[in-house]
Amino acid sequence: MPYALRLSALVTFALGLGLVSGIVAGPPFTTLHLVFAVITVVLALVVLGPQLRRSFAAGLGAWFPLIPLVLGLLWYSGLATRLIGRAGFVVILIHAVFGIIAIGLIEMGIARARRTGALERAREL
Ligand code: HEM
Questions:
Q1: pLDDT > 90 fraction of the chain, expressed in percent and rounded
Q2: Which residues contact residue 89 at a Cβ distance below 8 angstroms, ignoring those fewer than 6 apart?
Q3: What residue spans define the domains of the chain?
Q4: Helix, strand or coil for residue 23?
C-alpha cells in the first residue's frame, strides 16, 4: 500500500508539474491529474492515518493533501473564478505550492512509518 501511495503521489505531482508549466494541457491530463489526486488523498488517509493517533502534527502527511484537493476542486468547479474573477488563477498557483508540500509530507510520513515499524519489529525480537 505505501508503494501505491508513492506511485499515485508521483504521478499526481508529474501531471501537476506538466499542467502548471504548460508542457501538457487539456482534458486527458486534467482528468488524469484529478483521478490520481483523489487516489493519493484516499491512500494518504488510509496509509498515514494511524500516525494521527500520536498527534495532529505527526499525521500531517495524512490530512495535508486535503488542502490542495479542496483548492483544486475550487478551481475545477469554477467557484474560484466566480468568487474572485480573473484572480482565480492565483488559487491554482497556491494549490500547486501546497501540492508540492503535500507530496513531500507524504514521503516523510512513509519514511516515518517505515522507521517506527522497524523499531517495533526490533523491540519484538
Ligand atoms: C496531493 C496533491 C494534489 C492534489 C490533491 C491535487 C488536486 C487537484 C485537483 C482536484 C484539481 C482540479 C482538477 C483538474 O483540473 O485536474 C487540480 C488542478 C490542478 N493542479 Fe493539482 N493536485 C495536487 C498536486 C499538484 C501539484 C504538485 C501541482 C503542480 C506542481 C498541481 C498543479 C495543478 C494545476 C496546474 C491544475 C489546473 C489544471 C487545469 O485545469 O488547467 N497540482 N489539482
A1: 72
A2: none
A3: 2-124
A4: coil
* Model pLDDT, residue 123: 66
User: For a substitution probing ligand 1, which of 33, 35, 67 has the most ligand atoms within 8 Å of its CB?
Assistant: 33
Q: Please answer whether residues 47 and 113 qualify as being in contact, where contact means their C-beta atoms are separated by less than 8 angstroms.
A: yes
Question: Is the C-beta atom of 76 inside 6 A of ligand 1?
Answer: yes
> What's the pLDDT tens digit per position in 28-65?
999 999 999 999 999 999 999 999 988 889 899 999 99
The span from the CA of 48 to the CA of 5, in Å, is: 10
Query: What is the value of pTM for the model shown?
Result: 0.90
For 1, residues 6+ apart whose C-beta sits below 8 A from its C-beta are 43, 46, 47
